[in-house]
Amino acid sequence: MTAQLDEVLALVSELVHPTDLVAVYLYGSATTTGLRPYSDLDVFVVVRRGLVEEERRGLTARLLGISGAPGRPVELTVVVLGDVVPWRYPARQEFQYGEWLREAYERGEVPGARVEPDLAVLMRMVVADGRVLAGPPAGEVLPEVPAEDVARAVVAGVPGLLGELAEDTRNVLLTLARAWVTLDTGAVVPKDAAAGWALGRLPGEHRPALAHAREVYLGEAEENWGRVGPGRVADCAAYLAGRVRELAPGSE
After folding, report:
1. CA-CA distance, 133 to 5, in Å (whole number)?
2. Contact, 240 vs 198, CB < 8 A?
3. What are the helix and strand counts (H, E) for the chain?
4. pLDDT digits over 91-126, tens only?
5. Cα dihedral sign for 164, 166, 171, 176?
6. How far apart are CA 88 and CA 101, in angstroms?
7. pTM over 0.85
């Protein structure tokens, strides 16, 4: 992990002028439960100004070579300090690279700035467990995101997740399980821990799909959704999404 992470940090330092760079943090499973076989390297970058097109293209092109096999997938998120401090929901995200969009990047698409509800979840994770790669501790730079905004973000992500079920089955099921945990307990936990929590509360017919997603994530099984059955996968996803919607703020 160290060499790949060093490459990411060197890339950010090269493309973002030192006076414009506020901080860089590692977060996610790398700083909580430890990296699993399918874990991303999650990196969060805070800058003082928006990125210009040349910087966006440079980040995208170079991350295509750093992220993915033989190393780990990299998810790199950039925010402008003034867009998140003071906090507002939904906040503006300046840039995000993720392996799920590799084909689009290879066609020449470059991530642009957008309003992104999920920033509430990411920032909660960074402030709670982020490890400093450059700059001050996260709690000195970023605000504490209110629990109600984390809940709103979790619910807002459900339609998009369901739309990606066929292409990204494992990740969708695990993320839906984590959304359920977050709304029920207020905690943002690692995906395998979320699945373990949810498995104890799922009806029996929905357990095989989530159990398989967890086993694959932990490296305990090869991914094979045929053995679970597409109907069971879809039913499990629908049940998890239903639990999230039932717990959504204002749903009572």
Report:
1. 9
2. yes
3. 12, 7
4. 999 999 999 899 999 999 999 999 999 999 999 999
5. positive
6. 27
7. yes
